[in-house]
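Table S2 (text version). Query chain:
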Amino acid sequence: MAGKRRSMGAMADINVTPMVDIMLVLLIIFMVITPMLQKGVSVDMAQAANPRSMHDADKEDAVLLAVTRDGKIFLGTTPIALDEVTKKVADMISGRLDKTVYVKSDARAKYGDVVRLINNIRAAGVDSLGLLTEKLQRAPGAPATETGGM
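Corresponding structure-token output:
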């Protein structure tokens, strides 16, 4: 019996261990990369009923400023002082054909902070200023509100 060999036939079990390993690696990669995909600082933007679509704000070279609830200002993801905004924005838009700057503000930010930021952006020689908002979500079946006088 020592000379008798057992023949190795086809294995009926599926080995899922390599597939699970690959899926876990992909999961980790996506978990690490996903926060990096967000452009700028996360703020709870004001909502508008009929916002205009501004697809150019999503471009990689777009100049995007954000005002947080506590009045902090960010250029992209970098914190910046209010008195530095004019110089930095002017440097970024110099030599560009499209001199548009986009501002997103937290809905609970102070109005004065946003106005001061916009004044400093305008002083940099910006041609166009885009104020980013989110589309107002109405409840299904809710009637549209009417505005107007008597």
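Notes on Table S2: The radius of gyration is 27 Å. Confidence is low (pLDDT under 50) at residues 146-150.
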